[in-house]
Amino acid sequence: MLDRTPGETLRAALERTLRDAILAGVLREGVRLPSSRGLAASLGVSRGVATEAYSQLAAQGFLVIRPRAVPVVAPALVPPPRVARAPDQQEPTPRFDLTPTTPDVMLFPLGPWLTTAQRVARRAGVAALDYGDPRGEHTLREALANHLGRTRGVIADPDQIIVVQGTAQGVDLLLRMLSKRGATRVAVEDPSHTTQHERVRAYGLEVRPQPVDGAGMVTEGLDADAVLVTPAHQFPMGCVLSGERRRQLLAWARRNGSLIVEDDYDSEFRYDREAVRAMQGLAPAQVVHLGTVSKTLAPALRLGWFIAPDELADEARNTKRLTDDFSPALDQLTLAEFLNQGHYDRHIRRARAVYRRRRDALVEALGRHLPELAVEGVAAGVHVLILLPPGLDDIAIAAEAARAKIRVAPLSAFRIEPSEIGGLVIGYGRLHESAVDLAARALANIVRARL
Questions:
Q1: Which residues contact 228 (CB under 8 A, 6 or more apart)?
Q2: pLDDT tens digit string along 95-132?
Q3: Which residues contact 372 (CB under 8 A, 6 or more apart)?
Q4: Cβ neighbours, 10 Å, residue 283
Q5: Is domain 96-101+346-448 given the CATH code 3.90.1150.10 in the classification?
Q6: Band of residue 25 on the pLDDT scale cut at 50, 70, 90
């Protein structure tokens, strides 16, 4: 219904309403309006009222009317003032992308994925398009329980698994739960991924840094309600949490009633021996296990899992429901079929072989072009680390590399507490073998100029 002022005709009210909407930017340039017949029917007025209002607005320059076409909002007579905004800072495409956290999406098995997706969509029918279980599709949760038990030693009932949109949402769910329970402190590895620190602080929780050495996170001095840890392959140092440290960490959790959050982000890519088993299998009541296909398949799938201890399973389900109801069903069903039919394992074997060749080539090239510096963290994942001599500014080196169109991460960017020891975290996930030597030589020239 039209909102008319006292003494205002229907035509005048309609004309004013449309004009105000155009001036306010609600109806923007190029928007197609209903036909006069359609507008009249929707408002319950005569077609003559709608036609006359349109004609008046066209005469005033607000609309463009052509024969046998619906009216279109005309370009503004006086452009509205624009609010000054900072221009988008789009990073130029680097010559060599050595980002340490990115997989090679060109390896994604697109053909098998599309074939599987089509098959499961036909089989699932329209039921898969309805609202779903906040925990995720049972088919996928069952497949994950079997797969993770077989490959990672995880002990989980499908009812303990929450399908989440990547590790990011898994951490977010956990922090919501901790905050609701009155937690105040979360320990994180130092160095570790900066987004974890940001998420903890975003919930008003205190970040408690724990140093990392060659045996993983140092457990002495832990004082927190929960701890985020990457035990299978620490990011960015690349070390594995030792057996002794694992026992100490589990004993600390039992003693204090604290949670261990195990981020198992890239354990599938271990090259020299079988990957160390997940901590969750040693203490399912103390460990929240997080996993994702972002590194193994593609980040854009936004598929991961959150395995909650029994006492947290219902709370985790409800938190997921309040966050976004549930994760997309068809992608979940496709991943379940991928797991059950062996496609996932075959893809992992193929990708592991590709990454191992790239790692071997990179380690050899760095040893040749930068023999002064040791290469560390080579056993797994898609990145290595070179530590720099004390006093050398790794942030300045990374900036200089960026000017040379080499994207590489400085170790200092991942630290909470400052350190004299800097380094470069070098990813090889997107570095083709043919470019490895060129990239290593170009980076070595920049580093050696400062040694």
A1: 171, 186, 187, 188, 189, 192, 196, 200, 261, 263
A2: 999 999 889 999 999 999 999 999 999 999 898 999 99
A3: 448, 451
A4: 17
A5: yes
A6: confident
pLDDT at 87 (0 to 100): 60
> Is 10-73's fold the same as 110-341's?
no
405: left (phi over 0), alpha (psi -120 to 50) or beta: left
Displacement of CA 78 from its chain's centroid (Å): 42
Judge contact between 304 and 293, C-beta under 8 A. Answer: yes
Comparing CA positions, the residue from 410, 431, 405 lying closest to residue 422 is: 410
384, amino acid identity: V
Domain locations in the chain?
10-73, 96-101+346-448, 110-341
Residue 138 is encoded by which pair of tokens? Answer: 């049972």
pTM: 0.82
* pLDDT bucket at 420, cuts 50 / 70 / 90: confident
Q: Count CA atoms within 13 Å of residue 432 on its CB side.
A: 6
CB 73 within 8 A of CB 31: yes
d(CA 358, CA 362): 6
Specify the CATH number of the domain 10-73: 1.10.10.10
Q: List the helix and strand counts (H, then E) for the chain.
A: 13, 16
Q: Which fold has domain 110-341?
A: Aspartate Aminotransferase; domain 2 (3.40.640)
Query: 170, 164 in Cβ contact below 8 A?
Result: yes
Each residue of 51-78: pLDDT tens digit?
999 999 998 889 999 988 999 999 876 5
Find tokens 């060749």 and name the residue. 357
Helices (H), 186-276: 194-202, 243-256
The CA–CA distances, whole Å, from 289 to 137, 231, 277 equal 18, 11, 12
